[in-house]
Design goal:
single chain; 261 residues; alpha/beta; Rossmann fold; globular
């Protein structure tokens, strides 16, 4: 289906809904219009290449002796530079290129622009949880693995060392504002998280890369993300990032000691 057909279908569905509910308020109509605009924008730039386009043009070549690191990921990476989470490695030549909600196929499409072009010595890839949740449609473990392999191959072909980070555990501890349980394990089954992390560990070891194990330090005795490390059972809070930061630093230091080839 072409982009035009998809956009047209979305518009017709929205129009049909609006006609069928002739009593709907103007605010509801405005929301339909806003939703259509958001969907059209997403179709025009599915991998969100525009998100960091301007910022990338301002990144200069790394000076001699700088150990530049780019973090590629989803919302967990995207939120890391928020001051309430401690900021993003103050004083370090680290660049955050996370985008909330993204999946591995989207990251793969923007990998050259948002990673390779910035000429890092190391890339830290944290990806896969949104694939499991189906954010951009149904996926499989094999498809996620293929996308991660492609990103790693691109990095190595461009003399960039790879740190492959585990997916974080999730939990069902939290509740929504209306008091209903938030069941994260329904979208992100723990057994699939474990399977993907086990594959990551094996693949990274076999291919001269570093496996960054966030998972083992953030899981509790029930197999859930530790309650004190998250407010929503999915994303780390300040305490969660405080656990992750030194683990990332250790992994980066280990990667810098490895030969690229």
């Amino acid at each position: 289906m072409t982009r035009t057909m998809v956009c047209g279908a979305v518009f017709l569905l929205s129009l049909t809904s609006a006609v069928a509910q002739s009593t709907q308020s103007s605010s509801d109509c405005a929301e339909i219009k806003a939703q259509f605009i958001r969907l059209e924008a997403r179709l025009r730039d599915w991998p969100a290449l525009a998100r960091y386009r301007d910022a990338n043009t301002k990144v200069k070549a790394p000076p001699k002796g700088e150990h530049r690191v780019v973090f590629m990921g989803d919302s967990i990476t995207d939120s890391w530079d928020d001051p309430k989470y401690g900021g993003f490695f103050p004083g370090k030549p680290y660049i955050d290129r996370g985008i909330s909600g993204q999946t591995t196929p989207q990251m793969l499409l923007r990998f050259r622009a948002d990673v390779i072009a910035l000429r890092p010595e190391v890339v830290v890839i944290l990806a896969g949880t949104n694939d499991l949740a189906g954010n951009t449609g149904p996926s499989t473990l094999e498809a996620i693995e293929d996308n991660l392999i492609s990103m790693m191959e691109l990095a190595r072909a461009n003399s960039t060392r790879v740190v492959l980070a585990s997916i974080l555990p999730v939990s069902d501890y939290e509740k929504s504002k209306d008091g209903k349980p938030i069941i994260r394990t329904a979208q992100r089954p723990p057994e699939k998280i474990r399977a993907l992390n086990e594959w990551m560990r094996a693949y990274a070891t076999k291919n001269r890369s570093i496996y960054l194990d966030y998972y083992s330090s953030m899981i509790d005795e029930k197999g859930f993300l530790k309650d004190e490390l998250s407010e929503d059972g999915l994303h780390p809070n300040a305490k969660g990032y405080a656990v992750m930061a030194p683990l990332a630093e250790q992994a980066i230091a280990a990667a810098l000691k490895k030969n690229v080839r």
